Amino acid sequence: MFNFDFYNPTRIFFGKGRLDVIDKNVPANARVLITFGGGSAKKSGLIDKVKTHLGNRKVLEFGGIEPNPRYETLMKAAEVVRNENIDFILAVGGGSVIDGTKFICLASHYKGDARDLLKHGFAPITSQVVEKVVPFGSVLTLPATGSEMNNGAVISYEHGKFPVMSELAYPKFSILDPVVTFTLPKIQVANGVVDAFVHVAEQYITFPADAKVQDRMAEGILQTLIEIGATTVNEPENYAARANHVWSATMALNGIIAVGVPQDWATHMIGHELTALFGIDHGQTLAIVYPSVLDVCRRQKRTKLLQYAERVWNITTGSDDEKIDLAIKKTREFFESLGIKTRLSEYGVTVDKIPAVVEQLKAHGLTALSETGKITLEVSQKILENAL
Length: 388
Prior knowledge:
alpha/beta; Rossmann fold; Dehydroquinate synthase-like, alpha domain; 2 domains; two-stranded antiparallel ribbon; 14 helices; globular
């Protein structure tokens, strides 16, 4: 197991009817900005409920944060924060709203060009770079990204998606009420299951580091998602299934299974380019790319792929290659059982469009991906062709 530091200060309030904790966890004299997305939180009455629990605090609203939050939109919110002397933000939404809010918190009082914050990549933004950060909390409405309990965000600018990481951007608290998610469209729920699944897999199916606790936790999350995936998609008001979905998505990317182990993230990087170029949902891009990554990279992932086959899918017979083949097949079938198509061609992306994706990877410096850095542009092209 590798050396590691672990820090996660986010307080979680999980379960039914937890909005009442807002009053005790937002400073009494705060000027609050509520951030949200396309309007469903407003139409459902959730925003009004949140405002009720904020009581007599001065409250402003900023809606319209996109599913892939755009820099330009977030900077408009940052301007509101500065002009209205906002000192606490409450994000009401899914991962995109929470991601966008993290960037707003970092950018609002940044003294330089805020586009600089997009250049750090996976290098953490520190207090030496951003001297003042607006604190925030979140009310989660879509279980998928784990953004409600981590310090990362992905921000869209021009034709790219840029990771932003900072310990300054952890939510102070997050409210996870599975009931709030009951009205989500099926496709959003399915995307969320896939996102959580691939988050775990990209931290687990790499190479052995003798991190037994992390492996067992990862396997447990994957098995849970397989067990409840179809149910949580098809039975939206099944509280038990949705509660396990919500907590699995949070545990998938709150840092606990990432400590001391190698991490991949090639699927996410390639998937981001597919979203940017073709508008394919993030979860759908992962379902397209990940089975192909496992297939093309089976040699470098061989030991952990066999462990995945045996421990997660209970594949115990056949040759090693047959076990790997079946594990990849079952992974693809699981995604498809949620109603998600797993081939590029099913989204209208043909072989002649693949060079444009590879060019974007090159333009964004994504030329040595995966836990080993061995996914070159040529290998990325092979992965994409294999995903047709």
